[in-house]
Structure of Glutaryl-CoA dehydrogenase:
Amino acid sequence: PDLFTAPDYYNIDDLLNEEHKMVREATRSWVKKELSPIIEDAAQKAEFPKDLLNGLAEIGAFGPYIPADYGGAGLDQISYGLMMQEIERGDSGIRSTASVQSSLVMYPIFAYGSEEQKKKLLPKLASGEMIGCFGLTEPDFGSNPGGMLTNFKDKGDHYLLNGAKLWISNAPFADIAIVWAKNEEGRIHGLIVERGMEGFSTPETHNKWSLRASATGELIFNDVKIPKKNLLPNKNGLGAPLGCLDSARYGIAWGVIGAAMDCYDTALRYAKERIQFGKPIAVKQLQQKKLSEMITEITKAQLLAWRLGTLKNEGKATSAQISMAKRNNVDMALKIARESRQILGAMGITGEYSIMRHMMNLESVVTYEGTHDIHLLITGLDITGHSAF
Ligand code: TGC
Ligand code: FAD
């Protein structure tokens, strides 16, 4: 049975192979059965629905593109993207959990870790037995992470870590944190910090109006002793965390298409059913303008994501290309959420429909993983050769 008629105005399905479609259907089916029925309540209560973790692991959302040898799903980048699209059709906060676990925790261990770290941690992260978080942002260094103050000193048989990270997704319950900190020479390295280490705490950040179904918190390091084997040995410098962001930003470029599709689909159905002045509001040109522009923008975003995915599969996607897609697609989704909300009139502000929740969520998505402004400046740098940060 058709679970959802996904907008596909340009027959983009013809560009997908059987595996892509299978992954998409399996994810869609899980979202419909497990995520959609509980998400509104979780968001209203501002609680992360931990019961979804096992299901996310089962559908392969923890490490979709990590090779099967390490417990990942071994899929290509298009399948990864479609999976993020379907999860974010449900909720951006749950997609965030999958993004962080896959691209910001498993990816750095896979790409920069030792064989021992990979063998020990990746299978547990893939199965959801262990959950991770990623600490880059600090209270005084958000868009400019290169200025970070968190640091570690070499104490012979261990490192001593001090500092603080803020706005960290999954921090309140994560078992491990990939933490970016400077050594005595000011060079950035990744460290694996484990819950329970003395001097390490993870207070939760409350009162968010956005990503309410995702837990956000701080990471505080007060003379935390880190065993030397917990340093990621194979890459350092700011390029190491930024390399992880490339992978997460790519997933977001697909994910937000799902949120936009859900808003568009809801608004289209509502417009056909809602009668005002004796006729469905869908007959009115003003409503048709909104809906027509939405499907146009969704179609453009799908093509951008698909082409970026093929480039990524070939190992040819540049960071600047990823920035363009993240920025364009998040902006597209946020605008569609706002317009869809208006089509529903007063009903649009209630929890009976998903639109307002998507809209509030997307206010985080447009800020995290590089703000709308920062991604524009990355394009600016790429085309002019001049950094305007
Ligand atoms: P800059 O001098 O340009 O670069 C420093 C070094 O990094 C290299 N590089 C990259 N490497 C890999 N991938 C990328 N995307 C890269 N971009 C730059 C660069 O080549 C250089 O290497 P080297 O060897 O020459 O040292 O650095 P800058 O200090 O001028 O900053 C550049 C800027 C502003 C683009 C960067 O800092 C940036 O992207 N800022 C935004 C910060 C951000 O995105 N934070 C995200 C935090 S994590 C998060 O939000 C998770 S939300 C999770 C969820 O719930 O889904
Ligand atoms: P700032 O950098 O202070 O920016 C404020 C404003 O100034 C923005 O509009 C920005 O675009 C603008 N601005 C900044 N620099 C420039 C410039 N050079 N030119 C023009 N304009 C500029 N971080 C993590 O490390 N891990 C996580 O898991 C994580 N999860 C998050 C979850 C949520 C819900 C949120 C909201 C954030 C999360 N973040 C995470 C942090 C996120 O990455 C940062 O919020 C983001 O990078 C922006 O930093 P900032 O909030 O300090 O804003």
Q: What stands out?
A: The first strand starts at residue 132 and ends at 135.
